[in-house]
What we know:
It comes from Liagoropsis maxima. By secondary structure, the chain is mainly α.
Amino acid sequence: MNWDIAHNTLINTSFLLLLITLITYWTTVAFPNLPIIKIISRYQIITINILLSIALSIRWIKHGYFPLSNLYESLLFLTWCLTFAQILIEQQIKSQLIGAISLPIEVFIIAFASLSLPSEMQQASPLVPALHSNWLMMHVTVMMLSYAFLIIGSLISILFLIIAQGKSITLKGNSTGYFTSNKPISNQEYSQIYRNHNSRNNLSSQLLQSTSLPRMTLLESLDNLSYRIIGIGFPLLTIGIISGAVWANEAWGSYWSWDPKETWALITWLIFASYLHSRLTKSWNGKKPALLASLGFLIVWICYLGVNFLGQGLHSYGWLS
């Protein structure tokens, strides 16, 4: 068996399916009353996740170590994490909204990995001595899963800000209702106002129909969903940073070296810790936490990719030369 041909075929098939799935997901948002499209799109994303799993397994079997030796493998694994997180979240909320906003990112990542990276960077390279450790799978897997959940949660906050643009919105309690223009109104009154507004706002109306969370307006649903997803990603990020510190002490003799990757991981942690703190204490509500989560989207990408382009450090090997 030619492992390289099989791997490339799986990746190319995944890329093509991602493009098709992106279209089907957007179709479900535009036409929410077509249940067959929803079923097809769900099976498509599951198929993509399986194809990526097989492709990564092929590299694992061929080279004898977990496929995270370079940027190419890392991007493929991040795509797998995003599709995995998407499947889990959609299973809980019964909505295609998550895929509609996360699939463009997934398409971009796998396109960048397959089409932009030179062929020599797509080839597996021998692991440096520090990576010959069981911590590789544990630390990097948890960090990548945390990135996936934080990215999706931040994207929902960005969508929240787009839809809430031009409105004065504050959150009452813990995602139980909204005030507009600083005048409190009941949920029933708000729902009627929101339905009237949706008759003039086709995008909001379509997204609301595609979300099945009970007794929640669209903005309430997005705000609450972003909070819950970031609430999953943040503990994973914390575990990843702690495991990385333990591994660093084992490999380099120091728990913390203020390496660029470590520094930006700490900044990422502080951003989302501030977001969750503001939500738990209710010191901020409405748009302010969403702005903080949207900033977190940028910070995650700087932590994941930016330090490898802009600086040299202990984490630069195996990524960009």
